[in-house]
Amino acid sequence: MNKKGLILVFSTAIISGFSVFINKYGVGVANPYIFVFVKNAIVALALTSAILLIKDWKSFKRLTKKQWLLLLVIGLIGGAIPFLLFFKGLSITLAAQGAFWHKTMFVYVAILAATFLKEKISRSFLCGALLLILGSLLSLKALPTSFGRGDLMILLATFFWAIENIISKYALKDMNSKTIAWARMFFGSVFILSFLIATGQLGLIANLGAKQIGWTLVTSGLLFGYVLTWYSGLKYIPVSLASAILIIGSPITTLLSLVSGAGISLREIAAATIILVGLTIILASKRISGIIRQRLVQKYVRA
Fold it and tell me: Which of the 8 DSSP states describes residue 173?
C-alpha cells in the first residue's frame, strides 16, 4: 500500500475534522450560498496562483476535449451542486445529524468503485465498514428520529461527492492532482456564481461584515489544504479506502469539542474507539485476507 498516499489522505481527514468543527460557525454568521461561493472562489484563486507560480499551467495545453469535459463535470458535481446543497442543509438541520449523513459517503463510494473501477471490496473491508457506521451512529447524541429537508439536501450532496470521487479517480490516471483540484474549485465557483446571479443573491456579498469575512478566510484555508492533500493522495490509493479514512475526522472533531470546553461522554469515547478499530481493520484488510488464505492453503495441504 502506498505510504505517500496514506499520509496525504490522513492529512485530509485531519483537516476535515477541523473543518466540520469550524464550518458550523461560518454558516451561522453568513448566507450559506454566499459563504460557500466566497470560500470556494478564494480557494480557486489560490490554486490558480499556485499553478502559475510553479509554472504548471503548461500541463493544461496537453489536455484533450474529453479531459476538459471531465474537468467541467468535476466542477459541476463536485465543486458546485453538492456545496450548495450541503451548506444550505447544514444551516437548517442539526450539525451532528448532518455530519452523520455525510459520513455515509464511503459506502456509496465503495459500491461505485467496485462497479465502475473494479476495486475489490474484501470481507474484512465490509466488517470494518460496519464498525465505521456503528461508530458514526454512536457519535450522535441522539439517533435520527426525523428526516427533514436539510437532511435530504446533505444526503444528496453526499451522493454527488461520491460520484465525483469516482470520476476524479478515473481522471487521475491521465491528469495530475493539482489540475483536478483546480477544476473542482474554479469551475465550481463559476457554476455557483451563475446560480447566485440567476437567483438574485449576488448583491448579498456587499453585506458581509468583518466577522463573516474572518470565518470565510479561515474555512478557505482549510478547504485549500483539503483539496490539495485529497487529490494528491487519491492518485496513489483506492478511492474506497481513501473515503473510509476520511471518517477519522469524526474523532478529531470530538476531540476539538472537548478542548474547546464542551463536555464529552463515554458514548462519544466509545464511538471514536469503534471508528478507529473499524479503520484499522480496513487498513489491514489485505494483510488479514492474505493470512486467512495462507492458513486455508496450509490446512488444505495438510489434509
Answer: T
Letter string b/e over residues 186-214, b meaning 16 or more CB atoms within 10 A of that residue's CB: bbbbbbbeebbeeeeebeeeeebeeebee
DSSP code, position 62? G
Question: How many residues are listed for the chain in this entry?
Answer: 303
Q: Which residue has the cell 468503485?
A: 113
pLDDT of amino acid 115: 96
Kindly report the pTM of this predicted structure.
0.87
First-to-last C-alpha distance (Å) of the chain: 33
What sign results for the dihedral spanned by CA atoms 48, 41, 83, 199? negative
- Dihedral of alpha carbons 73, 235, 251, 270, sign: positive
Neighbour count for residue 145 (Cβ, 10 Å): 6
pLDDT digits (tens, 9 = 90+) for 116-141: 999 988 888 889 989 998 988 887 76
b/e code 160-169 from CB counts within 10 Å (16+ = b): bbbbbbbbbb
SS3 content of the chain, % helix, strand, coil (to 5): 85, 0, 15
